[in-house]
Design a protein that fits this description.
homodimer; mainly alpha; Arc Repressor Mutant, subunit A; 2 strands; 70% helix; 10% strand
Chain lengths: 156, 156
Amino acid sequence: MTPEPSPRASSLSKSRLRLWLKLLKASGLIEDEIRRRLRAEFNWTLPRFDVMSALARSPDGLKMSEISRLLRVSNGNITGIVDKLTEEGLALRVSVPGDRRANLVRLTPRGKELFAEHAAVHEAWINEILSGLNDDDIAGMIRRLDHLTEALDHED
Amino acid sequence: MTPEPSPRASSLSKSRLRLWLKLLKASGLIEDEIRRRLRAEFNWTLPRFDVMSALARSPDGLKMSEISRLLRVSNGNITGIVDKLTEEGLALRVSVPGDRRANLVRLTPRGKELFAEHAAVHEAWINEILSGLNDDDIAGMIRRLDHLTEALDHED
């Protein structure tokens, strides 16, 4: 016979499940709100913002596969976004010396400038949405989230 | 001239942005891990698990539009999942008395039983993944997440 879990262990397991559902709900609600505002204010999609954000942090450029890995989405989705950014003069593809098949994607000066403007507005939105959390709240949550993701990150 | 934000306010804004990025990362990593395990252990997708979970919590059945609203995904995606669950004898569509166009979707007894088994395994996974968090950590995070989502939830 499988032993029953102790009531103590079982209640902790239920609390962890409850926390997970709340974590999912919070990140989903915030993400929806950001998605809605990006669309309304800039006519941007969230994946476009995320691709530009990844490129803005890598001035030397990123391979398509690197963008996909960073954003954890498929290469196919990234291709369409990068094609559009290129058409609009916000990004460009540069060839990698010594590797004829690989391209690096980079933001153009205009892309950098526009992203910096939108990123500042995005930060202000997050500041407003998370305004109920003070420094202590934030430090406490960051410490616990780091603890949580450390284990998962190492599994890769 | 726009006044510069005080260094204090600006640093809090940066911390909130940092927290948001960590919240997104943690929920993404956990979700990926659950998705991977559902696929490997049960050959289930995460959306299938989520649809069954919504149905399991509504023994009277749910309209397609209610499932989509609860899961915040489009009706089209839900249709394919419900079709498959129905084919497999895990769910069924029942007509709504007095409304010929509306159907309610319900789990069958076999669907309920199978979901209960998989949900228990899912809870054990979450318990393991979140094992670094004790009761205090959980209570602290839940309090802050509730505070956070309260404002967003009221906006609807």
